[in-house]
Structure of glycerophosphodiester phosphodiesterase:
Amino acid sequence: MQTADGQLLATHPDDLAAALEAAASSAAAAVGLRNRMRGMTLAELRAAGADEERFPTADALIKVFAGLLADSGLMWREKRDPPYEDIPLLLMDLKADAFNAEAINSIMAAAQSVRATPHVALLVSSPQQLALVQQQTRWHGPLIKAFMDRENPNPRVSSEDLEPFALLAPSIRMSNAFMAAASRLGKPLLSWIVDTPADLYRGLELGVNAVVSNSPLALRAVLMDWRDRCSDRQGV
């Protein structure tokens, strides 16, 4: 979310609103916060309950992420494009009016300052957004194309149209035909939002490379259960 003074907070607006409402001094003070917060500066949001630990700026998050990459030896240093399915990525999904040239350029500058450009990806959901990125920004990181099932669960797949994108991010609800066609393009598939065992099963059956989830601990429990069952069958 972008603050009134142009800062980017690395959070979903709904999560920020919930935190501000919980921190309000009274029920009356919480009324309308969800709408008012978009007109607040970073300092005002901090004072209202948006602490730095839960709601870091995008710049701060990118710096921490880059530090983890460097410490673990996973920072991509080669000049060629990386295998995006095999390297850690920080996905920036700019909501609503936060998707603008100023915000995108600030993210790019932060990534470049810590040499993490290949690891910071921008989600693009429409031709208009792609045109903005290509014509009005200095973006050099990977782009990820989002596909929304509520718009069309089986859109046409064109290798030419999707050439600018390093990864494809289809909703887990997209049709089987679309998922098969997308897989044939050879780009990694990052599916969302995968929150249930059934969704995870479907993603594996469709051959997706990674998933976005609001319930990572629940999915971890499913994966651990699968691991234990496989171990039992193999007598490990």
Remarks:
- Residues 80-233 form a domain with the TIM Barrel fold (CATH 3.20.20.190).
